[in-house]
Amino acid sequence: MVLGALTLLFLVAQTMVAQAKPESLAPLAEKISPAVVNITTTTMVERPTAPQGIVPEGSPFEDLFRDFRDRNGPEGRKPRKSSALGSGFVISEDGYVVTNNHVIDGADEITIEFFSGEEMPAKLVGTDPKTDIALLKVESDTPLPFVSFGNSDQARVGDWVLAMGNPLGQGFSASVGIVSARNRALSGTYDDYIQTDAAINRGNSGGPLFNMDGDVIGVNTAILSPNGGSIGIGFSMASNVVTKVVDQLREFGETRRGWLGVRIQDVTDDVAEAIGLDKPEGALITDVPEGPAQEAGLKSGDVILAFDGVDVKDTRELVREVGSATVGKTVRVTVFRDGKTQEFKVTLGRREEAESVPVAMQGEEGGSDEQLDVLGLSLRPLTSQMREEMSLPDDSTGLVVLSVDEASQAFDKGLRAGDVITEAGQQKVETLDGLEERITEAKDAGRKSILLLVRRAGEPRFVALSLEDDE
Asked: pTM here?
């Protein structure tokens, strides 16, 4: 009897699953297709079309080819039209269209083809090369069919997705797959890609990636392939990144990202141990140039653990959170400093205005001709002559690395001759005695390593070296 009941329950469950599963994705494709568009761009390029004869100097044919080239040169370099294809999708009934920046980059003319076959010229509203997103606008006398953005954060690995676009010029083509991975980073600062095995090929760029509710959760941007075709590894920029960019492009015609004003690096296990942090998390500040963070009191060596109420796991997350924050907003930043957490209020600036500002090194005059061999390093305080030879600012201080023992941990972690150590144990060091004091303090405190701030060509980074190398 029990076996019979279990069999009946199993059959009922199978029936319910079968009823819940859609027989076809056709209803979804029919619903969203009218809002997906093909994009054709035209660019005027100047390139030689006449034969370019190459003959040895002094050849009897040299004058003949020169005369031929001179006669045909102006005609041979007439501008010609170059066309490219891509995809996009309409996000409002008044004609705003989203695509990739690389689809329309440098285009002189942009044409939108709709599912109905109708074509319209489009104008460029704005672009964001950092996320490879562009916003276009078409003018229509009637409301246009459009699709809405969904919440990409709710997409789970294994969820079904549908990609649509214009692969290899085969317009309005649909492909289905699953979410293969989340939070992928390729090469950009603000990358947050959804990886999918739905077939994405050249021409799909800028097209939408839909969930089963018909909401756009990604913009198809790139593929990983040894041959240029789909092998089931495609990447779509997450909609929660895209929507913020689109809103700014729509309102301002450009992006306006928040700017904290710090240089940062990830916290590793040895760095966490060196500063007394329980676990490797947060973003370690390596430099604080003039800007919002400096005005608020943040310092080099601070570890940012939370930004505007959001826990910071690593540098990538901090960059995304700051970049999506509103310019001029005052936020709370929680940092780890001197073994405890502190909170600061920072009024954010605008990244686009700050990116070209050079970062000056800080320091005070000091130095001697003494030399110290410690932690696998041969060190000497900076002198005026060294600053001149190394093209360092006149006010730069610290200990210059003369040589590095290739068998040491310092060499394994990338330290090289010419590097300048400006901090040890999160305190400035200008003399060899100062460094030795910092090492002694770290040992007395039971530390297994000491944190050094190292600058190379003005670029700072923290390196934790084991104190056992000094024993």
From this structure: 0.68
